[in-house]
Amino acid sequence: MKAPVRVADRHAFDTLIDARSPAEFALDHIPGAINCPVLDDDERRIVGTLYKQQGAFYARRVGGAMVAANLARHLREQFADKPERWKPLVYCWRGGLRSGSMTQWLRLVGWDAQQLAGGYKSWRRHVIDLIDRVAPQLPLVVICGATGSAKTAVLQALAAQGEQVLDLEGLACHKGSLLGALPDRPQPSQTRFETSIAAVLEGIDLQRPLYVEGESRRIGRLSVPVALIERMRDSACVEIQAGVPARVEYLLRDYAYLGDRPEWLAEQLGQLKELHGKDSVAAWQAQALAHDLPALFEALATRHYDPAYARSQAVHFRRWAGRRVVPAHSLAPAQIAALAAHISRLPAAETQTGTGV
Questions:
Q1: What tens digit of pLDDT does each residue of 213-269 get?
Q2: Residues noted as catalytic
Q3: Which of 101, 148, 208, 324 is the most exposed place for a label (fewest CB within 10 A)?
Q4: 3-state DSSP helix/strand/coil percent for the chain, to nearest 5?
Q5: What's the rounded Cα separation, in Å, for the pair 155 and 272?
Q6: Residue 275 is part of a domain; what is its CATH number?
Q7: Three-state SS for 161?
């Protein structure tokens, strides 16, 4: 009898098959898995209702026919071209009936199919444990700067130049501010966000810097894992310092799509009334509705974001006093690439230990 297959063994298989319903798969799944449900969302609801109302036998009798039909369809379509030596790994929620049924069918064909012990729940434990274990060891360099300092663009440029990067806002599908929601790109679930973080951390070389943007504990509606936030708070910082004109120019490029969403923009600004008063917010809303983004962005930067940034950095980052300051006279695309190259050349000992300029 073969030993149980664990999460760490998954890379030894040709294909990773998620046998759960499409809704479960969309919420989160093991990276690289394909979804071949043995019960779709409606069928799963039907079987669950039968189980509660009539008992396990009736649920299995009806569900068994559904499972058989779905497995036959997968054999005709998804698996029709698989060779004799194909080796798939199958999982469901807990490593129970759904993945067990598929595994048995695949073995009957002659493939060396295996079932992931513990199913998706074992993957979820792996993600939590990995983040908690690896985060305290990460050689982080935190990129800071006032709103509009092109921090995300610098991270992307660093990645393009071969540096290690953890783009939390990219993984969260949100820019991390009041206006950070991305059009037509909903945020993932919290579990999917954490899975994406874990997937990055699994490949990190702990002997090289890992660049990350300075974030608050929440990015939109998602929470950054506590162990990662704590490591960021205790890591070396690099601050990009750019003037207001350069930042506004960058914001106009980065948030250009807001010009097509004036009503949504005005509605979001309404959340600032308690902080800035009705009159100020009404003036900003009028600028939004009039498509006057240059004036609006300058006002928001200087009156809302900059004061909050000045107050928060020394509180949030324990090594803030020893940060490296990098002036940026322009945030045009070519200058962003040069800025990233300059940051990557900062002395490793100084960025890692937090000693001053």
A1: 999 999 999 999 999 999 999 999 999 999 999 999 999 999 999 999 999 999 999
A2: 92
A3: 208
A4: 55, 15, 30
A5: 29
A6: 3.40.50
A7: coil
